[in-house]
Amino acid sequence: MAMLESIVVFTLLLLMLILIIILILFAFKPWRFFSSLFSFPSRSRSIKVEDVERPLVSDDVNHSQDQSNDLTRNYDLEGACYQSEALLRSPRNKGLVHKQRLPSASPHQGDSLVLEISDPSEDLLVGQTLKHPLATEHLIEALKLGRPENQNENSIQEFVPKVISDQRSCLSLEVVSGPSRGIRCSVQSTNPSRLPLTLGRVSPSDLLLKDAEVSGKHAMITWNSNKLKWELVDMGSLNGTLLNSQPINHPDSGSRQWGHPTELASGDTITLGTTSNIQVRILSQNECMVPFGVGMISDPMSLRRGGKKLPMEDVCYYQWPLPGIDQFGVFGICDGHGGVEAAKSASKILPEMLATILSDSVIRERVLSQHDASDVLKDAFLRAEASMNNYYEGCTATVLLVWANADENFYAQCANVGDSACLMNVGGKQIKMTEDHKISSYSERLRMEGMGEPLRDGETRLCGLNLARMLGDKFVKQQDSRFSSEPFISESVHINQTSGAFALLASDGFWDVVTAKKAIQLVAQREKELMAESEKENLAEKIANVLLNEARTQRTKDNTSIIFLDFDSTSRRISCKVDDP
User: Fold this and answer.
1) Domain spanning 293-574: which superfamily?
2) What is the pLDDT of residues 94-130, one digit of tens each?
3) Is 273 left (phi over 0), alpha (psi -120 to 50) or beta?
4) Pairing, β 293-299 against β 328-337
5) Domain ranges in the chain?
């Protein structure tokens, strides 16, 4: 009996041991290493030819020569610099993989070939910024392996991506997480007075982060005019700097020594400390050409309400020019409620709809000749509302359409739903460009009375909302027909070069604590101070900061976004376009 029990116990222990071994094998998958070991010498590279799979291109030199005739004349290297995109595409999408369409030795070949080139000898990690010279070296080597014997070696240079030497570049930074989430900053490579750009916890840092883990002077961004690249360097911070989760600070963080400069690309994420993440956008000259001053800034005001963090639901944006429409540009603010998704959707769809409508030459010429874009703006809002699928989220939308005539004078016209307002000052005259669509506003009460469904005395909300007009919120619009997405359209405003005009768009977080009269006084006062100090550069950005600081001083309790346009001819410059977060 004792022997039987011993056998049973031994069997159970053996089964448990086998089970543990199986679990360990499934957890660590050691066969991966054997598989890669035996398959690596013959690993091939994927080729796409008009979406049809062809034999793979081997690493073997002789095999590469056999494939040389399949190479096409077009290339599309992910991570390379393009004149039209100006480093906007990030090389980190594929880790260590660069896809390259290589030139064809035969002009009759119409197929396209994509090589996935990776070099295991390079000590690089997924997410690390890949240097474009590395990709170029791979490309040249691939071409050398695949070209015919009689091909001139100098012809390889024809296919190597080149940076346009006179290219301007705009760098935009947005804090996407941490205590200072929502703060933005932008700088141009052609503006040395604002370079280098410093990131830190104390003034005079250009990007001021109220984060205890961020050093007083934490990191710095410079423009390398030789490489035509933006570079990030850690300034000996205590908690280090990460670029796409990889440290770039000095290995000995306690020594307070600076790290080595590292190239930035659009789409990168900079991490200061552990919580403050900063999104990088790099825009080209074509995207940065604006014929007047533009200042844009936003703050979630996350430290208000007794330290309660507010979610950032504002989205401010602009595009100049609209795609394919050189004379027109759009500037807008969307303030979301119930979430930020509706605001993101509207900020993307509205410019697309305006560009689509104005691409019709007949409509465009009518706007230019009649100096009126009312129908265009109304149609864009109706199309945007129809395209949005936000049933339980909504947003305000304030859009200022600006266009130039042949005499280089400007016209501006505004459309809005909700309570994000726009005002203009032209020749000292204040012009209100929007209408307040709160439930409590007189105009909305009159509209509802005209529908035969008046509000009750003291009623200031419908279905829990204090707005009567908005984009999105499809569910409540189905419940109550008094909600509307029809925009208010202002009259068009003519702006000549000597009128000293400006426009101010802001979400209700600003207008809740600052009156229109006070805003105009602040603008006039700050303009006078800056002109006296001969500080004419970036005038619009500085004024936008003054206005935001006033909202902070008045302790606004809502997200605050501001766009300031300075049409004064003495301050026209190149500025940066900044999209939604």
Assistant:
1) PPM-type phosphatase domain (3.60.40.10)
2) 333 333 333 333 333 333 333 333 333 333 333 333 3
3) left
4) unpaired
5) 170-287, 293-574
